[in-house]
Write a structure and sequence with these properties.
- The structure is a homodimer of 247-residue chains.
- Chain A has 247 residues and is of the alpha+beta class.
- In chain A, 40% of the residues lie in helices and 20% in strands.
- Chain A contains eight helices and eleven strands.
- Chain A has helices at residues 4-9, 17-26, 108-117, 119-145, 148-165, 180-187, 191-203, 219-226, and strands spanning 31-34, 39-41, 49-55, 58-63, 69-75, 94-97, 101-107, 169-170, 173-175, 208-210, 213-215.
- In chain A, helix 6 packs across helix 7.
- The two termini of chain A are 25 Å apart.
- In chain A, 45% of the residues are buried.
- At the A-B interface, strand 5, helix 4 and helix 6 of A face strand 5, helix 4 and helix 6 of B.
- The structure holds a DNA duplex (30 and 30 nucleotides).
Amino acid sequence: MINPLVRKLEKFTKLSRADQEALRDLASQRVRHLNARDDLIHEGDRPDHVNLILSGWACRYKTLEDGRRQIIAFLLPGDLCDLNVFILREMDHSMAAITPLTFAEVTREHMEALTLDHPRVTQALWWDSLVNAAIQREWSVNLGQRTAFERVAHLLCELFLRLRSVGMTEGTSCDFPVTQVDLADATGLSAVHLNRTLQELRGADLIVLRGKLLTIPDLEALQAAALFSPNYLHLNHEGQRFDANDA
Amino acid sequence: MINPLVRKLEKFTKLSRADQEALRDLASQRVRHLNARDDLIHEGDRPDHVNLILSGWACRYKTLEDGRRQIIAFLLPGDLCDLNVFILREMDHSMAAITPLTFAEVTREHMEALTLDHPRVTQALWWDSLVNAAIQREWSVNLGQRTAFERVAHLLCELFLRLRSVGMTEGTSCDFPVTQVDLADATGLSAVHLNRTLQELRGADLIVLRGKLLTIPDLEALQAAALFSPNYLHLNHEGQRFDANDA
DNA sequence: CGGCTGCTTGAACTTGTTCAACAGCGGTGG
DNA sequence: CCACCGCTGTTGAACAAGTTCAAGCAGCCG
């Protein structure tokens, strides 16, 4: 399989062979595995490397003292967590595997070397982190303004498009290994109401979700129901302006 | 008044004279003014410079087709918007002045020069943008998990601490020029319910809010009520490790 | 004074929560 | 092979939190 990070960044800019090689190199160092539900890192820990998701799903989350949990972001293959985390003294949130997970721990030194040697890659990584910031903002809109129905629909649209951008969809379907409890924690709904909302979405023929497979028969329709506009994902080949297929 | 950006960044690292001078320089170019409610930039516009807030309050926001509006972030003096925005083709959200506003438009070239010449400043700016990302994440927790009461309390704690970090509080009070409708749009509540929530907070003697002045008689108590933990603001002089009072 | 914007109130209503119970499934151990 | 356990998904019914609508008030500025 093609490296999902490379694939995603090429949505932004064409990368040279050397660039691609450097990225593949990132993905081959200090590779680690986790079981579903294990923490990658916990609030309060000192961050000393950047995590690059290679396969499986993970999430960022925070819990309140009384146990309420909010999932803050989903991390998919090709996602890189916070280029500069080292700068901070301690993590302000936790990260956990949702499925069995493979990821690479990229050291500070490695990141710095990459930055120096591959300006085009660096640019693309900044683009990626701006997109992540935009996603985070959209989640605020989602949680603050959308109804349960719209909110769940919106999340599904987003995840589907993000998966597609790393080549992890097949036609109108994709793997969807998230439990309803996780979805509830991501959308700020109770598990019960989330369940009923999914049923509504099914009833409206907007989604088919069975086992761990999600099918979206009519993406346009789902987007309309969610008041979803994909602009914040900045996927429209922004940086075809930088075309440099060998440096 | 001391430059708020310098003051904030010094929470992270000691800056040399030259560093400080460079930052003050940022704040003196292409200074612009807006009236309350005017947009700085609108969704869909092409971003071609970074905005540095000099005085007054602003916000980021998004609106849905049917008019629902979510305020996504508050921008206070000393706040700098998205170091790298130029990378994106178009804005995925809007920004507006809440009060009469003074801000500086910093060109791409100027930012790049700053980055090259002042690595310590660059580092501090990255710190600042990581903190902004953390704030954005915390807003998700706020919107997704906290009750109206906790949510409003939490927002007030955050704003108070952020204002304090740029020297804009006086004892237990600060200027608070935000209308209830704005607060409602930031917390995802209806204006009516926001109003009642403020009354509850007043009734519990957690805040005094009259006119445009906010007083928090017992910050600890308000934080406790909000389940507020300040760690995500990373204000605990993280970077006293870098002390270099002249380069 | 008149008109605007922002704040406040009451009452009916809706959306989403909570609690409690149960069904389905896969895995594990006896 | 069956019994049992734990996790995930599903259901009903009572309940609570927050919304909506509509009206009125207060303060401010011209």
